[in-house]
Amino acid sequence: MSQRWLGQGICMAASAGFGMLPGASLAAADAALLPRNLSPWGMFESADIVVKTVMIGLAFASLATWTVWLAKTIEIRRKTALARQRIGLLERDTLLAEVEQASRDGNDAVAQIVQSASREAALSGGTFDDGFKERIALRLERVEAAMSRQIARGTGVLATIGATAPFVGLFGTVWGIMNAFIGISEAHTTNLAVVAPGIAEALLATALGLVAAIPAVVIYNHLTRSIASYRALLGDASVMVMLLVSREGDRSLFRLARAAE
Q1: How far is 25 from 216, CA to CA, in rounded Å?
Q2: Is the CA virtual torsion 105, 109, 110, 114 positive or negative?
Q3: Model confidence over 142-199: pLDDT tens digits?
Q4: Per-residue pLDDT averaged across 2-15, rounded?
Q5: Which has fewest Cβ within 10 Å: 52, 78, 79, 204?
Q6: CA-to-CA dists, residue 52 to 24, 203, 208, angstroms
Q7: For a pLDDT cut of 90, what percent of the chain falls above it?
Q8: Are 117 and 237 spatial neighbours (Cβ–Cβ below 8 Å)?
Q9: Rounded Cα gap, residues 235 and 255, in angstroms
Q10: SS3 for 91?
Q11: Which residues have CB under 8 Å from 161's CB, separation 6+?
């Protein structure tokens, strides 16, 4: 009796083992079909040409973002330091001609402001009246606007990258998922080996889109604040030039009054 039960148990175990063999073989086949290299570079190499184009474009956008950040940071710091130095000269008890002589060889914004005011003074023949002050103010406003546009040049690229990079990455994501479903349809199976490569490429495109967009937005906001501070310095320089012109006009009238006495 015991031998018969033992034989039945062995048969049942054998049949159960044989029943599990197909599932085990499918798992082994899935493991064999899965791509071995799921690193970012491996996913890039196995990606579709459209997804590759998206990834390359996002990489160039990220490179452009950091290039603009480095160039504009150096430019803003250099021009801000020079503007503060020029404003220090304007704050002294000096004459417009002396300040113009000191900044004659300069091409910075404050030097352009001083030179424009001195040019208008020369064209007006030394007449200090309300019309002269208005002409000076108009000239300084034009120079200030031109220098503001010049310092802000290049920052529009950051705004464009920050606004469009997530959608470009999303396009790569959609294309990668489409390829995954196409692979499922052609293979007539839902094995992980068929789905995994396309999903991985799609997620990589999304990640690259965020990597390009997030720094672009942060750097754009930082540069915008720095440019606003620089524009405030130019406004201070214009005010100092107007005060200098007004002070010289008052001194001339004072001298004329003393001479008449």
Answers
A1: 49
A2: positive
A3: 988 899 899 999 899 999 999 999 999 998 888 888 877 777 777 676 666 666 666 7
A4: 43
A5: 78
A6: 36, 13, 11
A7: 26
A8: no
A9: 30
A10: coil
A11: 61, 64, 65, 212, 213, 216
The DSSP code for 112 is H
Residue 41: DSSP 8-state: H
Give the mean pLDDT of the chain.
Answer: 77
Tell me the two tokens of residue 127.
């007449």
Average pLDDT (62-80) is 94
Half-sphere exposure of 224 (CA within 13 A, CB side): 10
Is 0.85 surpassed by the pTM of this model? Answer: no
Asked if 190 and 184 count as a contact pair (C-beta separation under 8 A), the reply is: yes
What is the enclosing helix (H) or strand (E) of 149? helix 130-151
- C-alpha dihedral (100, 106, 107, 111), degrees to nearest 10: -30
Could you tell me the pLDDT band of residue 26, with boundaries at 50, 70 and 90?
A: very low
- Angle CA 137–140–144, to nearest 5: 135
Alpha-carbon torsion, ordered 170, 175, 181, 184, to 10 deg: -130
CA separation for the pair 23, 31 (Å, rounded): 12
* Positive or negative torsion for Cα 230, 235, 240, 244: positive
Average pLDDT over residues 13-22: 42
Alpha-carbon distance of 32 to 193, in angstroms, equals 8
Q: What is the pLDDT of residue 232?
A: 92
* Nearest in space to 159 (alpha carbons), one of 224, 234, 206, 252: 224
